[in-house]
Automatic annotation (TrEMBL):
Gene3D superfamilies, alphabetized: 1.10.1650.20, 3.20.70.20
Pfam families linked: Ribonuc_red_lgC, Ribonuc_red_lgN, RNR_N
Annotated protein name in UniProt: Ribonucleoside-diphosphate reductase
EC number(s) on file: 1.17.4.1
Enzyme class, UniProt record, top EC level: oxidoreductase
Secretion signal span: none
InterPro entries, alphabetized: NrdE_NrdA_C (IPR013346), RNR_1b_NrdE (IPR026459), RNR_lg_C (IPR000788), RNR_lsu_N (IPR013509), RNR_N (IPR013554), RNR_R1-su_N (IPR008926), Rrm1 (IPR039718)
Amino acid sequence: MTLKQLDSNKVTYYDLNNEINIPVKGQIPLNKDKEALAAFLKENVAPNLKTFNSLRERFSYLIKNDYLEESFIEKYDFHFIEHLYEFLENVHFKFKTFMAAYKFYAQYAMRTNDNAFYLESFVDRVAANALFFADGDEKLALALADEIIHQRYQPATPSFLNAGRKRRGELVSCFLIQITDDMNSIGRGINSALQLSRIGGGVGISLSNLRAAGAPIKNIQGAASGVVPVMKLLEDSFSYSNQLGQRQGAGVVYLNVFHPDVVSFLSAKKENADEKIRVKTLSLGLVVPDKFYELARENKDMYLFDPWGVEREYKVPFSYVDITKEYDNLVANPNIPKKKIKARELEADISKLQQESGYPYILNIDTANKENPINGKIIMSNLCTEILQVQQPSIVNNTQSFDKLGTDISCNLGSTNIVNLMASDNFGNSVETMVRALTFVTDHSDIDVVPSIQKGNRLGHTIGLGAMGLHAFFAKNKIHYGSKESLDFTNIYFMLLNYWTLKASNTIAKERHETFAGFEKSKYADGSYFEKYLTKNFAPETEKVKRIFAGIFIPDEAAWAELKEAIQRDGLYHQNRLAVAPNGSISYINDTTASLHPIINRIEERQERKIGKIYYPAPYLSNETLPYYTSAYDTDMRKVIDVYAAAQQHVDQGMSLTLFMRSTIPAGLYEWKDGHTDKMTTRDLSILRNYAHARGIKSLYYVRTFTDDQNEVGANECESCVI
């Protein structure tokens, strides 16, 4: 029976998996998941995995029939490939849960053209990744195979899925582009959105530079239409360019909170908005300078400044003006058109929309730029809010070509699995192997349809290594999320990621005699970046975390001083190195929890299309770990913010931090609710956003609300940009 003929009524694994949700004598029957896994491998995988008499026969078939590229295979002696497979088979990899195996074979395993048979197992996909990303380097291929098969490293979904395939999409995850205040740039931006959505991945677009509705247009008797019509055009573009209907195109637009169209921008996402302006599938993000928090806190009026007037006075696009620093000058300048609103009313509008839809994302732009070690200005983020890199504007002429080619961004992502990396024999070697795999992606990414992205990637060599499984690690080690021990561990783990990615990037720069463009103007080159590591000893403080890191090298001030000297001498290859993305289906394959946030349920319920409900028990769930698995919806979000803040101090880019709320707030969770309504209010979200800003959080992703009727508002809809 082939996959096409498989009858869901004749297999047992769905029913076995569903029995997990039926308690037996008050206990969760976790054994049913193991039974479901065994049944799935026996009833679904074993009879439908195409087999071959030899490894040579397999590769010959896959190359001949255009399933695998021949070029990356030819870089190796075939005896080495056989040796690599022998190593992988001897690991005896096994999925731990039904969900892990189901997700891999449903979404990642290569199939025959007629969709009747699987063409690869997990070992085969790991081998393809190792051989492809090692680019002929046998030592690196073995090291990569070791990292991926032991699930210490997980390439981003586009990379893991497409590595080695003859017919594939791009290896990168998502893109960021900006539009400047003229029709040529708008047209070019819409075309770029079409092209990038066709390639695959989410697209972030900055609209902050566009003049507001009603602003004058040079040499034309009339007024500009503002940002909302451009949003509609972009939404239609993403809907049209959807990889032949295989997925919904995904995009986010960012607007500065001091833009005159900010109220209409937010209103376009409201459920009761007029259909002429309503955007249904486009995500919204707000760029928020520190000045907004100050004005809202003091309950003052705030002025909104038209970008065309600001650009006329400052000779740079609106995004490149420091609003906090220049606010009083902007208010006092009579040549800059402006209008006045109440800051606190806008703050309430933001909270109302987050309650209703989960949007907008929040980018604390001054925090991002203050901590930015690279010469230049961060102006926006991506579809998942973790990419924060400098950009330069382009100038597009009437022929839609460039008078000045600026720089935009592509995201080259991967993730560490915290539980498994902590068990590594050599933390530093593991991280260097991951950095080299990501370096292959940035080196071989060539998005020529959008030259500004192509240029930005070539100059910056940027990557984004992140992490998943933090809550799983806490539970396994009996640490409560948000406790002193959890903050201690998170601090040291991300300090180590920072140290070893810096060291790896420095090694690659030395090997290649090449740095990222502009290194000499960075805080790495002048040494100021390392000041905090030279003046404070980042070492475990709690006894439990000291025991956890026993035997793992923790760099002290002397080690950091040595690294600083090496970097100042030989440079860094990568402009950016770290970013914590959200983790979608790939975290299930890793049998771990997603990203850094708490779990949602001890037994997670997933609605799979055409299949129904599938249940996924939290990793390492047992009677002993049960008390350490509190749902995110029952967790004080300040604890989550504190954990992310412990990591953020070491992460040069950003993190996808989701806030989880209930429509009815559990008693005792937030002290300001005592004696007041237990319903979630706009004030609750305002307090949490301000708390995140005060703790140095650079960006906030969705606000997810669990409603009283058991639904979720603001659930993560983006599958294209997640790891």
